[in-house]
Design a protein that fits this description.
- This protein is of the alpha/beta class.
- Helices cover 62% and strands 9% of the residues.
- The protein contains 21 helices and 10 strands.
- It has a 6-stranded mixed β-sheet with strand order 6-7-8-3-9-10, sandwiched between helices.
- A hairpin with a 2-residue loop joins strand 9 (575-580) and strand 10 (583-588).
- The protein is elongated.
- Residues 1-22 and 24-33 have low confidence and may be disordered.
Length: 614
Amino acid sequence: MSTVPLTADPGGRGVSLTNIRRDPEREARERPLDFGLIRRLYSYTKPYARRRNWVLFTVLVRSIQLPLVAWTIGSVINGPIAGHAPFSSVLLGAGGLLVLSMWTNLNFHFRQRFALELGEAVVHDLQQEIFGHIQKMPMEWYNRTKIGRIISRVTSDCEAMRVGVQDVLFVTLVGAGQMIVSAIFMLYYDWVMFLFVLAMTPAMWALNRYFRKRLSRAYRAIQESFSRVTGTLAESVNGIRVTQGFVRQDLNAELFGDLIRDHARYNMRATRTAGVFMPLLETNAQLFIAALLLIGGYRVLYADPGMAPGDLIQFFFLANIFFNPIQMLGNQYNQALTAMAGAERVFQLIDTPPEWSDSSEAVELPAIQGRVEFQNVTFGYLPERPVLHDVSFEIRAGQTVALVGQTGSGKTTIISLIAKFYQAPQGTVCIDGYNLCDVTGDSLHHQMGIVLQHNFLFTGTVKENIRVGKPGASDAEVIDAARRLDCLDVFESLVDGFDTVVGERGAKLSLGQRQLVCFARAMLADPRILILDEATSAIDTLTEVRIQRALAKLLTGRTSFVVAHRLSTIRHADVVLVLSQGRIVERGTHDELVAHGGQYAELCRSFVENTSGE
């Protein structure tokens, strides 16, 4: 059973996110096999109906061609060769067989090509749909969903579905069609022996049904355990600094090894089951052929003098074509199980509705002045554990608001509600009198700029990351934003200037340089509401002097919410809101609150003491 290394358990070993070991195989048994998933998957071929129909046409042709090849070979042996006809007749038959084989192979080329193109198109649409869906999910969903599992849905699960589209259905139809056409030929040649072939069908069906259930559970368990592996791997890579900082390399490697061994065990179990299934199918086919040989030989020798040995040979060619797809169909069934497991997980993600979204009646927020009002807002990330309790305040347009308080007091929660990253179940949050529940999130975010303590830089250049604030901005506008922020020289001093590649998550820039990129991004966006959440905490004192001058320009005329632990960042705020345990306990200007001698005055003394050594 697998574990996810993240936190320490009471024994200090560190096991999982929930300290609960989970069994993918047990979870697989609990979910019934749903063939409706296959129908839903193939509904994605509707936009490509013409290409799909061409594939179906080539499938139909190929299912006829293969028995025809066998029939032609048997006809040449039973006709010209058995009848000692002129060699020219044999040459004619061989030529016809060659032409038929070339046509068969050409048709096979187009069947594969069209099927691959169809599979690629369907998976492209699926991945686009998944990406678009997760982009709309609210923050609550990301807080409880591991990134590795999301990646697994878009990669390995979609790849399994690709195989299901481009191979399983069409190869299965070829095999089934081949068996049907062969059966028709066999019925034409000898209906008695054909009835014997039909009598073998129940045994084959029972064998297939028995292994089908076992393989279904096995392949679902494999997909689930692989998701755990990718989720833990992504988490370990993202947390590598913590791992190395607390010397957890060996412990995490041991725990990840447990996951890998579990995954290998599920793979081996499925392989052993499939390894028994395939040989049994092949053995049954050979037993049936041997039985046909006995029955056919008896009929030629004793029961039916009218049946020539050549007729028996031709029947055997057709019987071989009839039984050949059985093993292939078994392989396709295994792939179908994997595709269904992937489809089940992908569609489960697609069908997961967001906890909340913009109302269907939500309107576009017009150009705003920036007046913000909280009215009796109570909110918690978990309903039973509120973070904010009955918070109310009103900020006039253009004012700068400092949010001050101990860690966990609710400062970041307030700005998250202003940005509509979350929606308060109790109370209202209004901007310019518009309830945020009644306006679209996009129209709000277009007029808002956010700079966080740990900002995210996308892979690309400095210029491209600044342009995130205004995607259509010209190079001149990007440079002007940096100039107004008084950090143009910082960017120009980089190796390639504004064209310097920042690396993954900005790894090639210093912490302060990354923050400056995010400040320039906000400056370029020219927002009406600006949010700074610990935005200067990663900037050294010398850089902060430059940033403070730039911020004075950036904040002018905008409604700004500033969360900071540096006194220099908040002392010039128009309003200071002091929070404690989710409640506003003090409000006023810096001077008023210092003179009051309450919690804010105590915090200011702490600021002075902490910075006195700088």
